[in-house]
Amino acid sequence: MERGYITCAECTDFQDFKQCKKLYNIVSRFFGFIFRTDRIGNLNRIKNVGIDKFKEEKMNDTKP
Question: Which of 3, 29, 40, 47 could potentially form a cystine with 9 if both were Cys, beta carbons 3.0 to 4.6 Å apart?
């Protein structure tokens, strides 16, 4: 947010998102485990396909 990014996927400071201490710390890993989320995987997907395609994919994942 400080840099005006929509998501962390726009950041180019790290080759691997796990290097970011704001994103990948013990608290975020704990919540990811508890809620079964994959923030790093989602950010990599956003970086590869873009936010609009990612949202479209997620919307299709939730349809019965």
Answer: 47
